[in-house]
Amino acid sequence: MNVMPFTCNRNLPLITCLPLCLILCFILTGCAVASPSVINEVKFVDLSDLQPLPETSNQDVKPLRVAISAVISPQGSADSYGPLLTYLEETLGRPVIAIQRRTYSEVNDLVREGGVDIAFVCTSQYLVGSREFDMQLLAAPQVNGEAVYRAQIIVPINSSAQSLDDLRAKVFAFTDPISFTGRIYPTYLLQEMAETPESFFARTFFTYSHDDAIYAVANGVTDGASIDALVLDFALSRDPDLQNRVRVIHTSEPFGIPPVVIGPHVRPQLQAELQDTLLNLHLTSEGQNALAALDYDKFVRISPEAYRSAELIETTTGLSALGEE
Cα 256 to chain center, whole Å? Predict the structure, then answer.
């Protein structure tokens, strides 16, 4: 590098020349070649040396959002689903957030909009979701060796009613506006009798969960209700005294059991991971405990064909298209 000689003009005062000299020294120093000792201190990265990435803290992991439809009341859901949610959290290595809404339609909205990753839904919720926004089956519970359930109409133990026809001009409890066993099925039975809930019953109301409908009957708040038979079995196993307070007067044919679903926003990788976790739940002691809390044998694969008979009844009544009342 050629450097022009620098001389201070004799006519300039020394205090003026001094800063110029300092600036020149800095320039020359910056252009100097680093010594070997400096070069040796530089650390190089070997791109062929592949090392695992550092573990990410839980705060950086996106939670798994799980919707639980109000088939049973919020407290009942917390008690029964708690062990399963804990198992998912530990197995997947990510926080799990349980989300509940008052109605089935609100849960479907969450699945549609990507507000949750996975949802435990009612049969009619799946039928509506599969038509409206490509809700997909992930798995289904198996209970007593079957992936089916039934609707049952119950009355207080001291009621004289022996069939649905005996509840004419009585008070009747539905569970949810689009519940299959809790509203659609009994409405279908009335249509077979050339009746509607409005023409047949004195009054109807919604409980928004099956266990609340059971206790409404047991406590004499209503003269009858149509409920999920599996929920009744679940309630009886935990409160045997219900056996002395309610009575079944009608049991339906079997229908496809309420499934576990995902929405169109879920990535295939997460879908496969969730499905594999559920299908293998029964193979571990922790998973068996989670299943026992729900009275399930295990989770199994299920086909849309399992829901065709329920879909036919739902279409006949036209109730799935109705909004909340």
Answer: 19
